[in-house]
Structure formats: structure tokens, C-alpha cells
Amino acid sequence: MIITKRATIYTLVLIITLFASSCYEANAGPIKTRSKPIGGPDIHAGQDVERDHHVLLPGEKIHNVMDFGAVPDGETDSTQAFMDAWAATRESTVKSRFLVPPGRFLIGEMFLNGPCKFNGPIVMQIDGTVLASTDISEYMNEHWLRIEDHFDLKITGVGTFDGQGHSSWKIVEDCDKKTQGSCVKNPANLYFSNVTNGIVHGVKSVNPKGSHIFVTSSANFRITNVQITAPENSPNTDGIHISHSDNVIVSKTFIGTGDDCIGMIQGSSNIVVEDVTCGPGHGISIGSLGKEEGEAEVKGVHVRNSRLVRTTNGLRIKAWPGHKFPGAASDVFFSNITMEDVRNAIIIDQEYLCPKDCTKQPSLVKIKNVHFIDIRGTTTSATPVNMKCSKLNPCEGIIFRDINFQFGNTLKKLTIPQLNSSCINVKPIFEGIQIPPPCLDLPLMPKLPTAPVTLPVPVPTKPNLPPVPVKLPVLKKSTLPKAGTTLKMVKTSVTTKLRAPKKPTPQVPTKSKLPSVHVALKKAPKKLKLQNSRVKKGAPKAKNMRNIRKKRQH
């Protein structure tokens, strides 16, 4: 009997050891790549995904959380009741619906895992308000509600997921600024992983502790007619965060939050953002890229027919400098976007979170084939178009077509000559209207005035003598008279006085006005001044005066 017990104990120890060893080997070493799921056919393509999902399907069974003990008072912990209702929905062999009726239900962290036994659509109908526990210590993972391993899942209704994140925002950890060690993110309201053919429609997400909606490792996923709100100063409350997913469509959605309205990071492909209103927030972003090893490329992103209002950024691609990990973003199209008082309207930043004079190594991320088409509105920055690409991997195929920005309300009172654009390590192609003017591949420099300017020549003059314009010929230094010298045949002494060019020089009176005077000089004096003669016109010469007197006496 004792031997049997010892054998059982040894067996258990061996099983635990082998399990721990396998987990260690599975997690040992860096993750080289992370493959995206193979979504297969999009079963909702061409369908009206906004149709009323409240209509029960024939034979559909309802699992109401209140039937499992949930209390709609907003104070009683109903986590176990939600878990029991979900377990019944997942294990059902017929069409089933998970229902949260009107009311306020308080629950903690939950896993709503699949797959479900019934081979068909599973509907989660949320008509009440689901409240997250406010105690951040109760959350062991980066999510509040994790929905994983599902095929053909629909979340619909008029209800709200309220993360009650106000108290947790004070202790949030900024993982973007932390470059070493692990970083614990605050839990997201809804975290979808490995969901294929999923739909989220009509519900609201407010005040999460972390992100609102996180979609990863999923395919054929649609988010439509959803309202996402959090205060402008709530940290790291991204609206919709997408990674390692294919064919994700976000449409007819309002997002106002404290971080990126929509963020697409590594492994996002074939993403469509359409008819979305963003603001407040940090705009619509791709990245940050180049922070982790083995990052998959972001490819095939279309953002169109959308509006941004008073966001810090508009359309942005961001990548880390100083990191050894490569990455890429290509085939990106931003079209028909309107902006209202957006600060950084169009920005490519491969010096993300680096000081102005960045001394880190250039980014290894490659950005190419990015189109900005028909982007217009008002801005609060004098440089609404700003591109700082990597010196090691310059941006390629950047195209601007019909860009038109005006000063917003904040800048109308400032005296700025015009909007500017800046390009570093990129040679964009410009087509159509370009306001601000196209930029060159160098840092922005202030523009010099084009009107001609006439400056005075710095020549000493008398107080009443006007300055000589630049357009008049300037005398060479060798032709100027030396100070203190007197020019010959000039009545007044000239020292440093200059006369206007081509002005006639004063001449000695001609013979018709004065009789000729003969002056015999042995040696030319240094200074010569002409005195007016007292001899009257027509007077006889001096040598004949004696003969004239004798004749008068006789």
C-alpha cells in the first residue's frame, strides 16, 4: 500500500516536471515570427452586417445571465453568473444566444473562450451595461473580457462595456517609453484573439483601463456602428488596436479617446477604415514599428471617407530609431479625409519619441508606397506636413495628390506668412493642389523675401546730403580724393564731399564775361584761388596811363 502511494507521488512529480519542462522549451528563446491566422473565405462578404441581430433565429435558445444569478444593481459581483451562462451557451448543441438584459452588471476578469459545440453563428446580445471591477489588482492579464477561439461570432446590441478605468489611469505604465524589461499594460475592455468571421455591431465602450478594443490573430473581422469614448487625458486608451490580423473592416464608428483612435501595428494586412469620426485622440496611426524582433509587415491599409476633429495627430506612420529590429509598412492609402484644427495633420516619424536633435541610430523600418489623396481641412500647426524618414532606409514612393490645408482658429490671430512642409530622407511626388507648398529633401528653412530691396551705400555725407542709391554707379576707391586735398580750378575747397555722377564741374568764367588775365608764375602754388579783377570792362592797359595824363594837362 505504501509502495503504491509512493509510486503515485513519483508519477505526479514526473508529470509536473515534464509539463514544466515542455512549457519552458516552448517559451525559451525569442519568438522569431508570429504567423497570422488563415481566415479562409469571408462568409460575411457582400452581406448586411448591420441588420438587426435581435431577431431570434428559428430554434435559437437564449441563455439570460439573470437566469444564472446575475444581479442588475451595479454592485453585486455577477462574474460567476456570467461564466455559467457562457458555459451553457458554448456547450449547447443547438443555436444559442448569450443575453445581457437591461440593467447594470458588475463583473471581473473573464475568458469567453470557444470553440462552441454548435457549428453555426453564436450571438452575444448586450442590452445592459456591463461594469468592470475597479480593483486593478484583480486583473492578472492585459484584458478584462477575453474572447478567443471562435468562428462566426456576433456581438450586438445597444448596451455598454464600461471599464471604470478612472482610478487605474493614475498608475498606468507607459510601455512605449519603456525600452527594457517587461511592461504590464492595463487591461483592455474587449480583447479578441483567434476569431474568424467576427462582427461587433452597435455596442459602446467607455472608460477602459487600457485599450477599448484589441483585435489580434484574427481574420475577416468587422467593427461597425460602434461608439468608443474616454476623456482626452486618459493615458493609453487606444480606441481600436489591430495586430497580426487580416481583412479587418472598421466602419461607421465614432472614436473619442486619450490615445490613437485606431492603431495598426505589426502583422496588420488588408485593413479598411471607412466613415470613421476620430476626436479627441492621437489620430489614425500605423505603428509604432521596429521595436520587437521578427515583426511582420503592415501591408494593404486603406483609410478613407473619414473625419478627424481636434486631434494631436491626423494620419501618422511611426517607427522607432535606435533599435536593431527591422520592420516594414507598404501599400498604404489615405484618401478623402477632412480635418478640423488638427495639429500634425500628415506625419511620417521614424524618430518616434526621440528628442529633436536625435542622436540614435537610424530606424531599420522600411516605409514605401504610401499615398495621401484629397486630404483637406484646418490645422493648428505651421508645418502640417512633416516627414522624418530613416537615413538608412529612406521612404520610397510617397505620393501627395490634392492636399489643401488652411490655418485653424488657433492660428488665425498669428502673423505667419504661410503654411510649410518638411521632408527629410524622402523625395515625395506631388500632384494637383499642394497647400502647404511641396517640400524638398532637406530641413525646412525660412523663405527669403522676393521683392527687391534698395539699401544705402555706407559713404560719409553731410547731414543734408541724401544717400546715394545702390542702382547708381559707385566710384572706385582709387578715384576718390584724399581727405584735406583741394581740387584745382574749383572755387570751394573739396575734401570728402561727393557729387552726383555726371554733374558738371564748376568752370572759370569765359572771356566773353571777363577780360583775360595773364598771370606769370614761376612755380605752381599748392593752392590756387581765383580773385575777381577790379579792372572795368574796356579799360586801357596800365602802361598807357602816363601818356593819357600828359595830354589832359595840355
TrEMBL record:
The active site is at H282. Keywords: Cell wall, Cell wall biogenesis/degradation, Glycosidase, Hydrolase, Secreted, Signal. Its main location: secreted. It holds the Pfam family Glyco_hydro_28. GO terms for molecular function: polygalacturonase activity. It is found in: Secreted, Cell wall. Residues 496-515, 526-554 are annotated as: Disordered. One of its GO terms (biological process) is carbohydrate metabolic process. InterPro entries: Glyco_hydro_28 (IPR000743), PbH1 (IPR006626), Pectin_lyas_fold (IPR012334), Pectin_lyase_fold/virulence (IPR011050). It comes from the Eukaryota. SUPFAM superfamilies: Pectin lyase-like. Residues 1-28 form the signal peptide. Belongs to the glycosyl hydrolase 28 family. This is Exopolygalacturonase-like. The lineage of its organism: Eukaryota, Viridiplantae, Streptophyta, Embryophyta, Tracheophyta.
